[in-house]
Write a structure and sequence with these properties.
Blueprint lengths: L1 H21 L6 H108 L2 H15 L5 H16 L6 E6 L2 E6 L4 E6 L21 H20 L2 H6 L13 E3 L15 E3 L17 E5 L1 H9 L6 E4 L13 E3 L4 E3 L1 H7 L4 E5 L10 H18 L4 E5 L17 H12 L7 E4 L2 H4 L22 H10 L4 H7 L1
Parallel strand pairs: 6-7, 6-10, 10-11, 11-12
Antiparallel strand pairs: 1-2, 2-3, 4-5, 8-9
Helix pairs in contact: 9-10
Amino acid sequence: MKKKKQQQNKQQKKQMVQQQSRQPQQKKPQQNRQVQRGHQTGQQVHAVQRQQAEQIKQPVQQERQQKLQTVQQEKRQKLQNVQQEKQQKLQTVQQEKQQKLQTVQQEKRQKLQPVQQKQQGKQQRQKRDWREYLYNCPYLILITLTSLAVMFVSNEIGISAVVRDAQTFVSRSYAKMPGEQRMVETGSHRILQDDSAGGRQTVPVSGNSDGTGAEGLYVNSDEKTENAGKRKDQKDDLQIDGRLQGGHEDAENGIEPEEIPKGTTIFESYEPVQIESRYYKDAGKVALTTEYPYTKENTSYFDDAAFLGDSRTLGISDYAGLETADFYCDSGMMIFKILEEEVTYQKTGSKVRMTEVLQNRQYGKIYLMLGMNELGYGNTEMYLEQYRQVLEQIREWQPEAIIYIMANLHVSREKNNMETEFNNININDKNAASASLANGTDVFYLDVNPVFTDEEGYLKSELTFDGVHLYAKHYDAWREFLMEHAVEPAKSKEHT
């Protein structure tokens, strides 16, 4: 019986377990409370963790802000220092310019003093002569009064005749002064008389150009003609001296002569980097475009221009739109080869020698841009010496030409390689060397890099396809830069 009851109890328990498994289990209220408490504790833990993270982040952020502030302050200080140095350099340059102008003006005054003294002496002599004439010739007043009386009495004698006779009398008297050229009016002619040379030129006052008219100028056949040529040379000399010394005629009229400008090439210095290379060094300075009152011209300015250079110059020839200019350039051209080897004349495609071209044809402007292929060839001193020799040779063959030394264009950040010689520091070293040859009168330094480089001096990557050469469409900006930096040939020629 007991076994039956036990079996029945077991079966009932099994049935109960099966029913409970089939029905969804309901959590007990105690379990729910525990779960809620667990959620609450988890939230509290998360909150504590957030607070701790924020506490940790705050000092880091503060330190970061402080570092940024210090960096910005240092940057501002450096910029201020650079600006101050630039202002100081500009002030020194301006002071030097003012000093030079003062010295030039003093020299002009010193040179003009004897001329002015001579003029004053001449005027004083004229006044003294008039006083002597009036003192020694009291009859002159009587004659003048008599002539006026006759003028009013007789209709045949006009005021012009009276005045002419008086002028003739005075001019004849004044013509007796020896050693000077004077215009003596005698009747219908003016006589340019020189007592020291014995020659004279007769200029008709009225009538025809054959000797009886106002339009003509002739020399008497029985007079010496050599004096006319001598007088012309003297006049030309005065004009030349007037141009170089500030203008004799302007000095007489009290007009300040126009100053002929002279350009100045400024070098901005910076802290150089130590370079371990036998081909170059960090120059520690950047050459800026020669300061000068440039004029803006159109493409016709380049009708008498010649461009000498390498592949960059070849790009200007192909894409800048300067068809009237002559381009002598090749890829790989160097300053050491430009006068030694043949160069391609881009208009014909033929090879020519610059020694023959520059001796047989005269140009008004010559543009030079060489130095990229010299980055790993020799050192900067060799480059500078060769550049100087080439420049002197060109000046000997082209005495009237304005020479422009164009800076070599920088390369991009990707192309810049400090482990080799192909980098912007080396390019800048070559540019600063060639810029030192500019004199601001007939040789000028032009730096186009600010047009195409970023703030760090690298060629903008969006402007180049290989980090060295520009896309074709960007050569228009180069052409505009050249047109905006033109020098009038007349001013440069006068100064030289």
